[in-house]
Amino acid sequence: MLLGIDIGTSGVKAVLIDTEGRVIASASESYPLLTPKPLWAEQNPEDWWHATCKAIRQILQDSGVAPGAIRGIGLSGQMHGSVFLDADGRVIRPALLWCDQRTADECAWITERVGEQTVLQTTLNPVLTGFQAGKIIWLRRHEPENYARVRHVLLPKDYIRFMLTGEFATEVSDASGTALFEVPKRDWAYTMLDTLELPREWFPRVYESPEITGRVNAAAAQATGLAEGTPVVGGAGDQAAGAVGGGVVEEGIASVAVGTSGVVFAHLNQPRVDAHYRTHTFCHAVPGAWHVMGVMLMAGGALQWYRDTFMPQESFDTALAEAEAVSPSSEGLLFLPYLSGERTPHADPKARGAFVGATLAHGRGHFTRAVLEGVAYGLRDSLEILREMGLSLHQLRLTGGGAKSPLWRQILADVFGQPVHTLQAEEGPAFGVALLAGVGTGVWDSVPEACAQTVRLADSTEPSPTHQPLYEAGYAQYRQLYPALKPFFRLS
Asked: What is the pLDDT of residue 99?
């Protein structure tokens, strides 16, 4: 048996699988998102740990599996967040999350201090507000008393590793998203740390994703019900973990994840970058490989916001049924999904969402469908960039909550102009890191072998020849929205 744990933005998910890749049990526990100011996003790391303990205990209870039968544990989680610990390993303040946009000034300062070309050559990415580097400098500037107490800086899943094993460790895929990591060399960018006057000892040891990083200690065994000594492997950031779970471990296959955020992810045998740095090039969870991904900050999160704001008494099924009754392209109604700024293709924390083209003829279903279509257009932006980079993507695999909607799957296929495929076991990043745990503990010899034996395609959705021309026209209009509205975003 293998256990995968994913520390998501809305909650933790734990999945127990056997060595055939069959899901034996799964459990989820939620926790709150804190937004003390506009564009701020925080969570209490202790909430992640308490939820993780509950989810693991639920898994053990539901499955009836003896704790000692679990051969290994893999960890995944939301990327880029900052967990600040003191000398005793205690949390100093709530973690700043991936979608937090407060650090624009700090990111500009880092880029100027290090030098833009040095940053790009070292990390293969610009310094963005979501990344961890700006958060550390923000703490130094705005909360100096808290900064003075810092002795360790961890990513979200690595805090759970610390609580399970007592080890300060991370792995290459998640560390790639800190803006402090030398992606081509798969190690910390020590020269950058020195230039920014950030102590090297604050940053944990880096492993490859399937490597064993520690073992469950006595305190964690008591808190979770796990067997003391159970190996914990490096795991992966949620996107790389989800890609492993979807079998995206060779060139030519890409995943499209429609979760809270939206991600188009492709495997690379060698590091490659977009000429304009609109996408991210990170280390993959496959040792010796890299990946490129385009990230939009709000995908399923945009639909969640819309439902909660405008249809709070209705279910998602009701909302989607109303949208399905509306013709493709929503009769000219467009939605720009930049509700919390954006990354790809516009690295702009001040970008905003908008409905454009509303008339008296538009009803609630039109607005719902426009949200689905706007997210699909945003994901196509990333897909087009990957194509511009010369990647030949012959298969697109859908993951995340959005993949469960037949309507959204059809819209995505129509907008992409390419079939999209779903998976038989769609347990997301938790499934992927369970596979990594299997590689690390000898169940499989490699990540590709693990995927070949456990990842299976389910359904395929073909693009509609009658819908595609409508969406081609809609996408052309969509691409004009951001440049036209950008001057107004600066006023908000």
From this structure: 86
Give the pTM: 0.87
Give me 285's structure tokens.
Answer: 């969870």
Give the gyration radius of the chain's Cα atoms.
22
Whether omega for the bond prior to residue 345 falls within 30 degrees of 0, making it cis, is yes
Cβ atoms 267, 243 nearer than 8 A:
yes
- Please pick, among 6, 100, 238, 381, the residue that the annotation labels catalytic: 238
The question of whether 6 is a catalytic residue gets the answer no
DSSP tag of 348: B
DSSP code string of 206-271:
EE-TTSEEEE--HHHHHHH-PPTT-EEE--EEHHHHHHHHTT--STTEEEEEESSSEEEEEEESS-
- 263-302: string of b/e by CB count within 10 Å (b at 16+)? bbbbbbeebbbbeebbbbbbbbbbbebbbbbbbbbbbbbb
What pLDDT shows up at residue 339?
92
Q: Which of 249, 253, 173 is nearest to 211 (CA)?
A: 173
Looking at residue 491, its pLDDT comes to: 63
DSSP conformation letters of 391-458:
----EEEEESGGGG-HHHHHHHHHHHTS-EEEESS--THHHHHHHHHHHHTTSSSSHHHHHHHH--EE
Contact 384, 347 (CB under 8 A): no
Helix, strand or coil for residue 488? helix
CA 302 to CA 179: how far, in whole Å? 26
Q: How far apart are the first and last CA of the chain?
A: 51
How many angstroms separate the Cα of 349 from the Cα of each of 130, 209, 370, 465?
Answer: 9, 30, 23, 37
| DSSP secondary structure letter of residue 178 | G
- Residue ranges of the chain with pLDDT lower than 70? 491-492
Spell out the alpha helix ranges (H) of 8-90: 45-63
In tens, the pLDDT along 98-153 reads 888 899 999 999 999 999 999 999 999 999 998 999 999 999 999 999 999 999 99
307: part of which helix (H) or strand (E)?
helix 300-310
Question: Do β-strands 334-336 and 395-399 pair in parallel, antiparallel, or remain unpaired?
Answer: unpaired
3-state DSSP call for residue 342? strand
- How does pLDDT run across 378-391, given as a tens digit for each residue? 999 999 999 999 99
**Residue 88 phi, psi dihedral angles, 5° rounding:** -95, 5
Residue 266 in tokens: 């492709």
Q: How far apart are CA 436 and CA 287, in angstroms?
A: 11
Euclidean distance between CA atoms 232 and 52, whole angstroms: 14
The DSSP result for 403-420, as a single string, is GG-HHHHHHHHHHHTS-E
